[in-house]
Prior knowledge:
Strand content: 15-25%
Distance between the termini: 54 Å
Order of helices and strands: EEEEEH
Strand order of the largest sheet: 1-2-3-4-5
Helix content: 25-40%
Radius of gyration: 14 Å
Oligomer: single chain
Number of domains: 1
Structural class: alpha/beta
Largest sheet: 5 strands, mixed
Number of helices: 1
Amino acid sequence: MNWVVEKRNGILLSAINWRLDARKPASNVFISHAHFDHFGNHPSVLCSEGTVRLMNWYSSNKEMQSKSPS
Length: 70
């Protein structure tokens, strides 16, 4: 397999169609660390259990913030 690595919306591993730390929605994403700028609307995500907990916390708090009066 010929590995081509591109820096475009994170790091793209085109041979296996996975992106590392994509900032915009992508089909298959590996989130290497829990920065909120990597939490896009990705259909398929691979990450640690701790990152999942942070993503869930962030999502629930984001919804609460959008519903609170200004």
